[in-house]
């Protein structure tokens, strides 16, 4: 009885709105030796208790890699050569960030909502406290976005989420080959007239497996063994090649 | 065919790595240089993180140098005594160099200093060698006989601790090779290379060793210096990528064998002129990078690393 009462309490919260039901082709990306990128299919449905509300419906899918602080250097000409002069530390920049939307971003997402949920790439990067000597700190954040976009690590693909009957949606996100390990935070936003009405969060686990895992662990847990093993391989390879070539010339 | 490198955390083409290893291996066998001064910038270029490139390159040099030195062992063109003296200086220098490197890192701008080091040393050594070997080549053509004039340096002969280096045919003090080893050790730790491109000219011009012995002896001591560097990087920075090293060294050891064969067929002056031209080309490229306005003024580095 108590459980039923609880459910009855919750239902009214959702009854007026819409809710995301999500499916994903995989919630894990295994990095093997031959890993050269992956493609993740994100699909789902919008669950409602009532008729379809008014207003334009939008779906936004974001996948973010682990955030880490980065130092951004700017070069300037000094004494005829180009040297790094200014440095700004960006406190948190995701190693990977992909946004897929069902329509142009500015149409389905209000700026205030973007600010609240930190959806666009510009908002997902956090930078506070540039040194006093630097007056144009935003230029450094822009540079991070520009550089990572050119490496295909940051991307925004509008109109790539397919909406069917205002109920079913699906999109696929390409993950590049130069992924780093970690939890990839995945969010799906449902918007009506630019306002977020529902949000769903999950993580995709990106990790090395097999030989990749073994080598990585060995290098960190037994660095001396790993170093000596590397040297042994080098010496052995050098000796093998030498003997092999001598054999060829001998015959 | 792509492969994902476990430490570098990037995906690269296998054949590209094999090819790079092979080309640098050929040069290594021909000239007795480790090839690090060529390979390290090339690895940066294909997107390997600098720290991983420098550490892994050291490991690969061990393989190609070992493969190359075996051929010289059999031909008896390795001066073990001289090699050991250089090595003692070299290892001491490498340890000193690491201290200097860490000090400069704390001061910032270490990248710039490394690049300037490259430009200055490659430029000076390359030009000197080019001019000298061009003259030698012209002279030998005129006379049709190669006259080896051993330079006798007054002050060098006056130094104490004289000893006979039989394979090199020298009777000199152990101090100059010790100092040369020390100096090259410091530079190689700072510049992240084996130091062959400095060692080879130093042995020829400063110590007066015959070119044929120089290559084998240089390779001999490079093995130990780079082996030491590999272990240091593996245990302190965890930046040696074994998968990358294996791919580079498969190409490298084969290349080194081919290179040694080519080296024995060329005349010493020709060999030196080719090495000089290569050193100058790399110097020119690095100088251009410093002088020309880069298309991207910003770069991303690891935070807290300065």
What does this protein look like?
The complex is a heterodimer of chains A (251) and B (306). Chain A is of the alpha+beta class and 251 residues long. Chain A folds into 2 domains: 2-208, Immunoglobulin-like (Sandwich); 209-251. Chain A has 7 helices and 12 strands. Chain A has helices at residues 2-15, 105-108, 111-117, 121-124, 137-150, 210-221, 223-250, and strands at residues 18-24, 28-31, 38-48, 57-64, 67-78, 81-94, 97-101, 154-157, 162-164, 168-175, 182-192, 195-208. In chain A, the strands form 3 sheets. In chain A, strands 2-12-11-4-7-8 form a 6-stranded mixed sheet. A 4-stranded antiparallel sheet of chain A has the order 1-3-10-9, with no helix packed on it. In chain A, strands 5-6 form a two-stranded antiparallel sheet. In chain A, strand 9 and strand 10 (168-175) form a beta hairpin. Residues 1-16 of chain A have low confidence and may be disordered. Chain B has one domain (2-147, 155-291). In chain B, 72% of the residues lie in helices and 6% in strands. In chain B, helix 2 (36-45) packs antiparallel against helix 3 (50-74) and helix 3 (50-74) packs antiparallel against helix 9. By secondary structure, chain B is mostly helical. Chain B is built from 11 helices and 5 strands; from the N terminus they run ββααααααββαααααβ. Chain B has helices at 14-31, 36-45, 50-74, 80-107, 110-143, 154-157, 175-191, 196-206, 211-236, 242-265, 268-291; strands at residues 2-4, 11-13, 162-165, 170-173, 298-302. The model of chain B is unreliable at 144-149 (pLDDT under 50). In chain B, the strands form 2 sheets. Chain B has a two-stranded antiparallel sheet with strand order 1-2. Chains A and B meet through strand 5, strand 6, helix 5, helix 6 and helix 7 of A and strand 1, helix 3, helix 9, helix 10 and helix 11 of B.
Which CATH top level class of the largest domain in chain A fits? Mainly Beta
Give the strand content of chain B. 5-15%
As a percent range, the share of strand residues of chain A is 35-45%
Low-confidence stretches of chain B: 144-149
Category by helix and strand content of chain A? alpha+beta
Compute the separation of the termini of chain A in Å. Answer: 91 Å
Number-wise, the strands of chain B total 5
Percent helix range of chain A: 25-40%
Order of helices and strands of chain A: HEEEEEEEHHHHEEEEEHH
**Overall geometric form of chain A:** extended
CATH architecture of the largest domain in chain A: Sandwich
Largest interface: A-B, 64 and 61 residues
Q: How many alpha or pi helices of chain B?
A: 11
- The largest beta-sheet of chain B arranges its strands as 1-2
The residue-averaged pLDDT of chain A reads: 81
């Amino acid at each position: 009885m108590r459980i039923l009462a609880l459910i009855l309490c919750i239902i009214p919260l959702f009854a007026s709105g819409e809710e995301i039901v999500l499916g994903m082709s995989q919630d894990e990306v295994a990095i093997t030796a031959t890993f050269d990128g992956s493609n993740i299919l994100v699909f789902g449905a919008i669950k409602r208790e009532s008729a379809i509300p008014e207003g334009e419906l939008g779906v936004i899918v974001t996948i973010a890699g682990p955030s880490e602080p980065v130092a951004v250097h700017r070069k300037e000409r000094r004494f005829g050569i180009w040297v790094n002069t200014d440095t700004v530390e960006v406190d948190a920049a995701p190693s990977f960030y992909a946004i897929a939307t069902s329509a142009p971003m500015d149409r389905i997402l209000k700026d205030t909502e973007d600010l609240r949920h930190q959806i666009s790439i510009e908002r997902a990067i956090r930078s506070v406290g540039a040194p006093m000597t630097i007056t144009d700190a935003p230029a450094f954040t822009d540079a991070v976005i520009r550089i990572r976009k050119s490496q295909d690590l940051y991307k925004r693909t509008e109109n790539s989420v397919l909406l069917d009957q205002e109920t079913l949606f699906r999109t696929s996100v390409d993950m590049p080959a130069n992924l780093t390990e970690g939890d990839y935070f995945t969010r799906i936003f449902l918007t009506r007239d630019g306002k977020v009405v529902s949000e769903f969060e999950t993580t995709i686990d990106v990790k090395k497996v097999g030989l990749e895992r073994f080598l990585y662990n060995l290098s960190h847990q037994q660095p001396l063994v790993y170093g000596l093993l590397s040297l042994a391989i080098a010496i052995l390879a050098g000796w093998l090649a030498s003997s092999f070539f001598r054999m060829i010339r001998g015959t | 065919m792509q492969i994902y490198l476990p430490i570098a955390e990037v995906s690269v083409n296998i054949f590209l790595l094999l090819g790079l290893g092979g080309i640098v291996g050929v040069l290594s066998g021909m000239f007795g240089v480790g090839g690090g001064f060529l390979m390290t910038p090339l690895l940066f270029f294909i997107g390997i993180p600098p720290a991983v490139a420098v550490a892994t390159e050291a490991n690969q040099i061990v393989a190609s140098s070992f493969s190359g030195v075996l051929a010289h062992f059999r031909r008896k063109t390795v001066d073990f005594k001289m090699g050991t003296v250089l090595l003692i200086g070299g290892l001491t220098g490498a340890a000193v160099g690491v201290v200097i490197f860490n000090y400069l890192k704390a001061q910032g701008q270490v990248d710039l200093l490394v690049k300037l080091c490259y430009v200055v040393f490659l430029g000076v050594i390359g030009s000197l060698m080019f001019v000298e070997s061009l003259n030698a080549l012209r002279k030998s053509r005129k006379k049709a006989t190669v006259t080896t004039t051993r330079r006798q340096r007054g002050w060098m002969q006056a130094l104490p601790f004289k000893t006979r280096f039989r394979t090199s045919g020298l009777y000199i003090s152990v101090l100059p090779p010790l100092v040369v080893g020390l100096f090259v050790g410091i530079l190689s730790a700072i510049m992240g290379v084996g130091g062959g491109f400095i060692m080879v000219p130093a042995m020829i011009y400063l110590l007066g060793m015959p070119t044929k012995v120089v290559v084998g002896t240089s390779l001999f001591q490079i093995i130990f210096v780079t082996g030491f560097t590999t272990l240091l990087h593996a245990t302190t920075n965890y930046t040696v990528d074994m998968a990358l090293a294996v791919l580079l060294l498969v190409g490298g050891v084969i290349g080194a064998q081919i290179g040694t064969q080519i080296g024995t067929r060329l005349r010493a002056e020709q060999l030196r002129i080719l090495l000089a031209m290569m050193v100058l080309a790399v110097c020119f490229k690095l100088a251009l990078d410093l002088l020309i306005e880069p298309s991207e003024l910003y770069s991303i580095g690891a935070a807290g690393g300065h």
